[in-house]
Amino acid sequence: MTCVNCKFLSRMDAMDKKNPLLSRPKADEAYCYLTTTGRVTGKPHKIEIWFGLKDSSLYILSGRRDKSDWVRNLMKTPSITVRIAKQTFNATARLVTDKEEEMLARNMLADKYNERTANGSLSTWAKSALVVGFDLENS
After folding, report:
1. Does some domain include residue 1?
2. For 116, phi and psi rounded to 5 degrees?
3. SS3 of 18, please?
4. Total Cβ atoms within 10 A of residue 109
5. What is the extent of the structural domain holding 12?
6. CA–CA separation, 66 vs 62, rounded Å?
7. d(Cα 26, Cα 92) in Å, to the nearest integer?
8. pLDDT truncated to tens, each residue of the chain (139 aa)?
9. Is residue 126 part of a domain?
10. How far apart (Å, rounded) are the C-alpha atoms in residues 50 and 109?
């Protein structure tokens, strides 16, 4: 099987020296911790979830699409915080609608979390989940 994101990983190596926000250990972390504001209560709501990083964008896939509480929360209040390892960032959430960016995110997470079928195509989850992007801010 070929590496769909080899160019991406090479760019990550080069970027590590330029942007501490995207250091390899952060991109290689298994989970991030996303904190949204509850759409009803207004209280912080934190989840542990898989993620992918590219440049200053973080991507998460929602298997329940817009039925997930965290997605419903961020649709009301898109300002969130995300913790990766021991570093916390402010971010603004957005639904990814650009097809090229969407496929980059799907492939990135499928490769990171072994979500491919035997023939190398995307798993059902990686193919059908809602792609949510987060524009990270330096903190």
Report:
1. no
2. -130, 150
3. helix
4. 23
5. 6-137
6. 8
7. 19
8. 444 444 444 444 444 444 555 555 588 899 999 999 999 999 999 999 999 999 889 999 999 999 999 999 999 999 999 999 989 999 999 999 999 999 999 999 999 999 999 999 999 999 999 999 999 987 5
9. yes
10. 8
